[in-house]
Structures are given as structure tokens and as C-alpha cells.
Design brief:
Mean pLDDT: 96
Strand order of the largest sheet: 9-8-7-6-10-11-12
CATH class of the domain at 185-338: Alpha Beta
Radius of gyration: 21 Å
Order of helices and strands: HHEEEHEHEHHEHEEHEHEEHEHHHH
Strand content: 15-25%
Number of helices: 14
Shape: globular
Helix content: 40-55%
CATH topology of the domain at 185-338: Rossmann fold
CATH superfamily of the domain at 185-338: NAD(P)-binding Rossmann-like Domain
CATH architecture of the domain at 185-338: 3-Layer(aba) Sandwich
Distance between the termini: 41 Å
Structural class: alpha/beta
């Protein structure tokens, strides 16, 4: 199976070849600008001390400060962080946000840790990586298993070290400490807006469209809710271990209530069990990939029966599978475009924090919708003009914008 970083680099290589980038530029963009690995001890509630490993990666900062999520994951690796940071660079460029890509992670299982332990781990991690971060250097945002509370700890720790409050070092914070309205919904709304544009392009009526959700975390459930509000019918959903299906559909509210209460989709009333592998291959109009990497590969891509596939997760489709889906005329909305809503609203929050002037939720949603629609239109225009996939078109736009920024800035010294 292709690794996460191999997938990211293959996707970049395709665009680099089409753009005719020099070998020097390709070499610079294929690897991160800087990487920091930290190992730090934290005292646990039982009095014992455990040493945790953390990462912070900057892929490219030619277009502005780095922006990237912080995730808690028991399986986090340096290779994964490199790929995620690279994808962040391209996402920022696609939606024309003046950031470069970063990613951070702490290797831990949050399900086995108390809230106070997570706070101590986060604060110590922030202290260890302080030389890299800051409102004009590297801005953090929530990611896998982290949330608004995590970002409040990040902001407070950094602020205490500097002697005054610095809200723009982190985004996705609670509104009470400089967060923006609408951030918690931003990624899901961005996916929803992208799917609406893709459906319009494919002349697919959303009212009555059959929707399969591969993954049902917080953001995935919000996507399901938005698609349901647009008339979609949720017919299947999964968690890390299993899936459920109901030909007549079930409500997003029922899915959320059951998942929150039971931490699984198994046993959702009115459904029958289905494996995650079978769920991906269900006949449907819209398939939302909201789980992990390399879920659709050369081994199963020929059995996918969706009309539109939207990548909420990063890297769920391998390059080999991409080609197969393209030959099947399945429209794939790539991750670096589809899930950029959180990046856009993180930028809005960063700007508001620096100016100390905050917007209403309606203003945030309106600006996000316009930004996502514009980005989708630009990507689609390139795809149609050059007769290429949406993914390749997105990469062409993003890589070219970053490469031009590097060329204009030149090489120091």
C-alpha cells in the first residue's frame, strides 16, 4: 500500500511535470522547510511520569506564516506529519489564503487520558516548540482529537510565556478568548459548499440524492446534516470498526444521537450492519470520505459506484485509485479543495484577532461560502480547459502559486 507521504509526493510530481517546474524547485517543494521532534516528560494523574513525543513540521512559508492543525494520535508519525503539512500548503494556496502549510502532532491516545493530563501534555508540548510558533510565524488550529479547549490551552501557554495575551497564535478557540463565530462548522460547511458545486456541475439533483458517509466523527456528522438540509438522504455511515446501511435512509440527528451515546454506529435503529469495505462500494450519488488515508486504492477503486466522491479526510484516495475513478467518470472533489473551509475561517479568526474587530456568524458563513465557491470555480475552469481531473487542476493552481511566490522572493542570501 502506498504510504501517506508517497501519495502526497506523487500528487505533487504530477502537477510539477505538467507545470514544467525546474528540478531545483521540485526538490525544494518535495521536502519540508523545517522539522522539529520533541520528547518531553509529563506527570500523569497516578503520579507516574511518561515521556511523550511531539512533532511540528513547516512545509513551505513562501506565501506567509505557517498554518496547521495539532492532532492527538497514538499512531502519529513523522512521515504522516510531512504529508499533512504539504497538503496544508496546497490548500492555503488554492483558497488564496496568505499562509504556508504546517502540521503538528502528539503521539498519545486521548481516550486513555484525563482532561487534566491532556492539558499538561498540550502545555508542555507548546513550551517545547515555542521557538517555531507565533502569530506571525506559525498559527495552530484544531485537528484530529483536538478542539476549541485545546486551542485555548495553546494560546494561554504561549501568552504566559510572553507576558501578554496573544490570541492569534491559535485559531479555533472559544469565542470567549478571541475565537470567531462559525469556526466549529467551517470545515464541514466547506465540504458542503464544494459538494453543492460538484453536484451542480454534474447536474445531480441534491434533493433525494443518496449519501454514504464513510466516517461519522464530529465533522462528518455536520456534513451529513448539511447535505440532509439540502435534500440528501443518508443511507449509510461508518465508524472506525463497522458500518450501517438503510436503503430508506436515516436522519443525521438520529446518527448523531446514537453515535454520541454509544461511541459507535452499530445498532442504529432501522439499519443493518455492513463492513467498512462494503460501505465504500454501495451504489450512491455522493460518497463522503471522512476517515483515514488510502481508503480507496487500486484494489477496490473499480468497485466504487458513486457519482461524486468528496474527500473530507486527507489522502483517502491513492494516486492509482484516482486514475481508475477518473476512467469511471466519477467526479472526485480533492481534499486540498474540499476540506479547506477550516483554513479559510482560521484566517478570518487570525485577522479578527490581530485587528481586535470581530464579525457576526452570518458574515463568517457568507465570506466562507463566497471563498469556497470562487476556489471551486477556479479549479473547475482549469480542469475543463486542460481536460484533467479536479485534483490535478487543484494541484496545478496551488503548486504554481507557491512556486511563483518562491521565485519572486528569490534565494537568501
Amino acid at each position: 500500500m502506498e504510504t501517506t507521504i508517497a501519495t502526497a509526493q506523487q500528487q505533487f510530481d504530477i502537477a510539477a511535470e505538467l507545470l514544467g517546474l525546474s528540478s531545483d524547485t521540485r526538490e525544494a517543494l518535495r521536502a519540508p522547510k523545517r522539522e522539529l521532534i520533541v520528547n518531553f516528560p509529563v506527570k500523569l494523574d497516578n503520579g507516574r511520569t511518561h515521556t511523550f513525543t511531539g512533532y511540528r513540521i513547516h512545509h513551505n512559508i513562501s506565501r506567509g506564516p505557517a498554518l496547521g492543525g495539532l492532532r492527538y494520535s497514538p499512531t502519529g508519525t513523522l512521515e504522516e506529519m510531512r504529508a499533512l503539512a504539504m497538503w496544508m500548503t496546497w490548500s492555503c494556496a488554492i483558497v488564496q489564503i496568505p499562509y504556508g502549510g504546517a502540521k503538528g502532532g502528539i503521539v498519545c491516545d486521548p481516550k486513555t487520558l484525563s482532561l487534566s493530563e491532556l492539558e499538561r501534555i498540550t502545555r508542555r508540548y507548546v513550551t517545547e516548540i515555542t521557538p517555531l510558533i507565533g502569530p506571525e510565524r506559525d498559527v495552530m488550529m484544531p485537528d484530529l482529537n483536538t478542539n476549541a479547549q485545546t486551542m485555548a490551552w495553546v494560546m494561554d501557554t504561549y501568552s504566559m510565556q510572553h507576558g501578554y495575551t496573544m490570541p492569534s497564535v491559535a485559531t479555533g478557540k472559544p469565542v470567549q478568548v478571541g475565537g470567531t463565530h462559525g469556526h466549529g462548522q467551517a470545515t464541514a460547511r466547506g465540504v458542503g459548499y464544494s459538494i453543492q458545486q460538484a453536484a451542480k456541475y454534474r447536474r445531480l439533483e441534491l434533493n433525494g440524492a443518496r449519501v454514504v458517509m464513510q466516517g461519522s466523527g464530529v465533522t462528518g456528522r455536520l456534513v451529513a446534516q448539511y447535505l440532509e438540509e439540502a435534500g440528501g438522504r443518508i443511507i449509510a455511515a461508518s465508524d472506525d470498526f463497522t458500518g450501517v446501511v438503510a436503503e430508506d435512509g436515516f436522519s443525521a440527528a438520529a446518527l448523531t444521537e446514537h453515535r454520541v451515546a454509544n461511541d459507535t454506529v452499530a445498532g442504529l435503529p432501522g439499519t443493518r450492519p455492513i463492513s467498512n469495505a462494503e460501505l465504500l462500494e454501495l451504489p450512491c450519488d455522493i460518497l463522503v470520505l471522512a476517515a483515514g488515508q488510502n481508503e480507496i486504492t487500486g484494489a477496490n477503486a473499480h468497485r466504487i459506484k458513486a457519482t461524486v466522491v468528496a474527500e473530507l479526510a486527507n489522502g483517502p484516495i491513492s494516486p492509482t485509485a484516482d486514475a481508475i475513478l477518473g476512467n469511471k467518470n466519477i467526479l472526485v472533489v480533492p481534499d486540498i479543495l474540499a476540506n479547506a473551509g477550516g483554513i479559510v475561517v482560521s484566517y478570518f479568526e487570525w485577522v479578527q484577532g490581530l485587528q481586535e474587530f470581530f464579525w457576526t456568524e452570518r458574515e463568517v458563513h457568507g465570506e466562507l461560502e463566497q471563498t469556497m465557491q470562487r476556489a471551486f470555480g477556479e479549479v473547475m475552469n482549469v480542469a475543463e480547459t486542460r481536460h484533467i481531473s479536479l485534483r490535478t487542476a487543484a494541484y496545478l493552481l496551488a503548486v504554481e502559486r507557491v512556486a511563483k511566490a518562491m521565485a519572486v522572493r528569490g534565494i537568501y542570501p
